[in-house]
Amino acid sequence: NILEDETAIQILSSSKILSEEIQAKQEVSVVTEKEIDFARNQFIPVAKHSSILFLSISDLANIDPMYQYSLVWFINLYYQAIQNSEKSDDLEQRLEFLNNYFTYSIYRNVCRSLFEKDKLTFSFVLCVGILRSKAQLIEDHLIFLLTGGVALDNPHPNPGSVWLSDKAWNEIVVASELPGLSDLMSSVRDTTSRWKQFYDSANPHLINLPDPFSSAEDLLWLSILRCVR
What is the pTM assigned to this prediction? Predict the structure, then answer.
């Protein structure tokens, strides 16, 4: 009779205690797992940003096959960024510090291995990747910047034919079909003298574009520069 067997009773009692301890530990592990998942999810923006950087440097192999960088090398730089970037108790600020430090570290280390002629291209590829990841890139602007668009028959007379080439004017007309540039053609036509000042400037990046593009940024500004210069 098991009820009269003290050893069996002790074993059952110990088993019950062990079962309760296991259950308690499982409950703690569930809570801990949720806390770890929550903490890990806070760093997803850093992971996405880092993936953009790695894809950007991977694209360099299309420029020259010798421009290839290993994942181990990339991860080592990332570990250094974690250790050396500025710390903050505010998580959002900490992530910003980490992203900024790692981006600069990648740029600096990659540029050491590039020919001088390829450094500007790498800067552009990196910027495009970052802008695209932040949904701050209008693809039509990028395509136009790279190709100049498709020039069709242009019925609009060139208002600055003395200084503005027909090719540049055709690109201005094409660019006016893009988002954010619909007023470009009319602006050049109505304020030709202002645009000539921009055209003649040795440092166009230091002066404001004529209205309504005085606050144009990034690829929008570059698209206009491509047309006029």
Answer: 0.72
